[in-house]
Amino acid sequence: MSRASIFDRLSERPEPASAAQAPAARRHDFRTDRLRLVDGLALTPAGLVAAGEVPAPARLAQSRELHGPDGFRLLVQAVPEVVPEPAPGLDAKAQRLQALLQGVLVDALMLLDALPEGEGFDIVLSAPLRTAAAEVVTDGLRRAVAATELARGLGELRHLAAGQDPHAALAAPDGQGHVLWLVVDSLLNLEDIAALHRRDRLALPTRQAGLYPGEAAVALLMQRVPEGGEGGEDEPGASAPGWWLDAAIRREHPGRSTLGAAARQRLVAELLAQAWPAGEGGEDDPPAFLVVDSLGLPGRTQELVGPLLARWPALDIIEQGLGVDTWGGWPGEALTALQLALARAALAPGESALLLGLAEETGTRALTLRACDEAATDDAPATTDDHPATPPADRRRS
């Protein structure tokens, strides 16, 4: 039986008697500039991304249905063995997103096994769905959770159309301390293809520079951080394993196409210095892993490699870096979540990562994943935003 039928199969099971029990008490004092990443995984064109598992890059394939403006069949990167089932009220994209979500859902719910006994959790689904379709998909998600013993801990389940900024997506005036963030998107449809083409970002068989349409379904178990500062006794998880995720640092600037090569490299070098400052005494260890959003767009590789090697000459960009778009295609709203999942999969305990966003024309962004056992400042970085982050070269771990 296809994995796409998971909602139907789970809905046929009786709900456990404990499903009506109230989850743990909600809190009202969460910070908006810091989260803790506990664990994560992703279903991608390259395969399943999970702790210690970063698959080899996905292969490009000609789409049977999608053609570019030049009339040739587009090269895309699709998640294999995901077949949407017809669903009343859902358009083709919504059906694809539901199928991707179902494909990752069992593994996603297993992440919740890490929660302490009796601990409640919220679920936030970020997916570009219209209101009616979102109601269908979230209802199926709710039924899937209700068919398990996890139902007793479920607090709020809500949907957001956007998924680029984790701090904005998971912010809540009150809620459970832990939240399962599900992020799914697919650009394998005419509307998203047209949008990429209008922005002159679509890679074509006759013009390879650009973005290849892709897709992904990501599940991240996050912990909201209460006010009170990192490492204090009042902060759950202060001594637990995981990674601190502070608000993004973002720099606005003139369009990249209007800047010379030296100016673009200087911009990246300044962002690196701000996002990853040298330690006391001049120590300047590089991140253990680097995840960049786009290396396929014109000039991105050149503007990144120079500043990286100038800052960290011993950094092995091939082994310690990965570019999302060249690794598994452009995943749309799932980009930032996928960057986080890739970094988590590549990092060993105690290691930290840097996530960069170079795809935008007039903005550059950085996010840091700092191992929780590292000393870190309580000063929150600049501002959060709703825009993508960036990716470097390929690294595989078995």
Description:
With 398 residues, this protein is α/β, with parallel strands linked by helices. The protein is 26% helix and 23% strand. It has ten helices and 14 strands. The protein has helices at residues 6-11, 92-110, 131-146, 166-170, 190-198, 261-275, 300-311, 317-320, 324-328, 335-346, and strands spanning 30-44, 47-49, 61-67, 73-76, 121-126, 154-160, 178-186, 215-226, 243-246, 249-252, 289-292, 321-323, 353-357, 363-371. The strands form two sheets. Strands 1, 2, 5, 6, 7, 8, 9, 10, 11, 12, 13 and 14 form a twelve-stranded mixed β-sheet that branches. A two-stranded antiparallel sheet has the order 3-4. Strand 1 (30-44) and strand 2 (47-49) form a beta hairpin. Helix 6 crosses helix 7 (300-311). The longest helix has 19 residues, at 92-110. It is globular and about 55 Å long. Residues 1-7, 9-21, 231-238 and 375-398 have low confidence and may be disordered. Residues 384-398 have a biased composition (Basic and acidic residues). Residues 1-27, 375-398 are annotated as: Disordered.
